[in-house]
Design a protein that fits this description.
The protein is an alpha+beta fold. It contains 8 helices and 4 strands. The two termini are 33 Å apart. 43% of the residues are buried.
Length: 327
Amino acid sequence: MTNHQHNDSHHKHEHQGHEHGHNHSEHNHSGHSHSHSHAPDNLKGLLIALIITGSIMLLEFFGGLVTGSLALLSDSGHMLGDTVSLALSLVAMIFAVKPPSLKNSYGYYRFEIMAALFNGVTLFIIAGFIIWEAYQRFFSPPEVASGTMMIIAAVGLLANLVSAWSLMRKSNVQENINVRSAYLHIVSDALGSVGALLAGLIMKLFSWYIADPIISVLVALLILRGAWGVIKQAFHILMEGTPLNVNTRDVQEALLRIDGVIEVHDLHIWTITSGLDALSGHLLIQDHKDHQRVLQEATSLVEETFGIQHSTLQIENSSMKHRSLKV
């Protein structure tokens, strides 16, 4: 991975601290080796999924035109959004490995979160279009060439399963929100193909053509459910929310248990990108205590107990006075 050099001045406060430092002995600032070490695998998995999704999108679009199936046309429209989203996820991942600069001290990691947010929003828009078109067809469902539709849907489902397997095998779907949003697009594609297959089967057996819009709406609702989770998490990260796996009160109480620490204030914990959390705070300690020992113990505790490698802690004693900060 790229060198991730941290500029210790990036957390400038309104005051000059008595002791203000990163822990440079317990962990290596030359690279965040945890989740981002998976970037090459993530890229490969996304590239395979992009090629497959783009190919099936074209197949379903032309298949929908030939058969007159809304389920296929809506799924191809969905896959167009997915193709764009997968491409954006790839671009975001490429940007994320660019080194930090003086203007962007955190590098471009946040681009992944913005891509995930975009992906979630596009899923909402696509689902809205599907529901609207289905509503139009409820009153006069057109006849559909169900046999051809089922063949195309089966090919689409198989391709989506291969894409999903590729991402699960080669990428970090659980921890990386950008990859997970792309994965959700593929899963929703697979649901669309299952829906098209089911609709085709019902129409083939019973000539009940209203099944096409009904199943399209059910698929759209499933898409909305997955999209909402991605949007909520991406928005939480962009709002500098506390990581979902970290409780601020637990961190505060753990720091207060360090020998010599009297008070913990101005404590902030946030996520830079998936798997990369950061913390800053002030520790008021007893005057006679060794500042460096407390700093070392605090940064080690934060990393080992809460998995936060990027910590910036300011050590203060009774001689240190500063205004209350706004946040």
